[in-house]
Each structure stands twice: as C-alpha cells, then as structure tokens.
Amino acid sequence: MSSITVNVIDRDGTRTEGVEWNSSESLMEALTRNKFPILATCGGNASCSTCHCYLGASAATATANSPIGDEEEDVLDMLDDTRHEDSRLTCQVEWSEELNGAEVTIAPEW
Ligand code: FES
C-alpha cells in the first residue's frame, strides 16, 4: 500500500500538515480516519454533501482519475454559495500520487 500526505485546513482555520492518505482510501476516508469533522452521512455515496471540501486550484487539476461525475455534480449544484470552483465531494476523490502535498480545506457546514 502506498501513501501520500495532504495538508488540511479545518473550519476554524487550523492547518494540519502531513495528514496521511493511504492508496486504499478515498479522500473522505482518509479525513475521517484522521478525525477531521467530516460526517459522511451517506457513507460515501455522493448524496449527502457532508464531505464537501475545497481542493485548491492545483489539486483540482490533479484529480483526472476521479473527475466530477453526474451524481456529484447534482449535489454540488445544490450547495449554492458554498460551492467554489475547486469544490469536491471528497468521497468521490480517489487517491493519486499527484495529490501529494495538496491543500484540502474543509467547507463550511450548511
Ligand atoms: S460522504 Fe456523502 S456525499 Fe460524500
């Protein structure tokens, strides 16, 4: 199993560097395993939006292996003003070496 690390910015602005993300996990699974406040109510099915994060412009382009699908697009569409260009449902973001060092900002609660 391979792993990379990402930097996570919590809702209160706290930045945690070196958060481990294993290749067997979605980004949501890595965040919840590391005890970040991600509810993941739907269990990773792209239907609840509680795993919403911002990936930053460079990381957003590094997710070519897990582009936004129709279901994710529909859910992101409902977020209105909290949706940004780099918004993703992290349960739909697959591990990729190119995401090593990415900045992941946890989106506000809705
Ligand atoms: S965990 Fe529900 S949308 Fe990602």
TrEMBL record:
PROSITE patterns: 2FE2S_FER_2
Record key words, sorted: 2Fe-2S, Iron, Iron-sulfur, Metal-binding
Molecular function via GO: 2 iron, 2 sulfur cluster binding; electron transfer activity; metal ion binding
SUPFAM superfamilies per UniProt: 2Fe-2S ferredoxin-like
Cofactors, names only: [2Fe-2S] cluster
InterPro entries: 2Fe-2S_ferredoxin-like_sf (IPR036010), 2Fe-2S_ferredoxin-type (IPR001041), Adrenodoxin-like (IPR001055), Beta-grasp_dom_sf (IPR012675)
Keyword presence, Ribosomal protein: no
CDD domains: fer2 (cd00207)
Residue ranges annotated for the 2Fe-2S ferredoxin-type domain, each copy included: 4-110
Any Gene Ontology biological process: P450-containing electron transport chain
Keyword Metal-binding listed: yes
Pfam families listed in its UniProt record: Fer2
Source taxon at top rank: Bacteria
Protein family according to the UniProt entry: Belongs to the adrenodoxin/putidaredoxin family.
Protein name stated in the entry: Ferredoxin
Source organism per UniProt: Kocuria soli
Phylogenetic placement of the source organism: Bacteria, Bacillati, Actinomycetota, Actinomycetes, Micrococcales
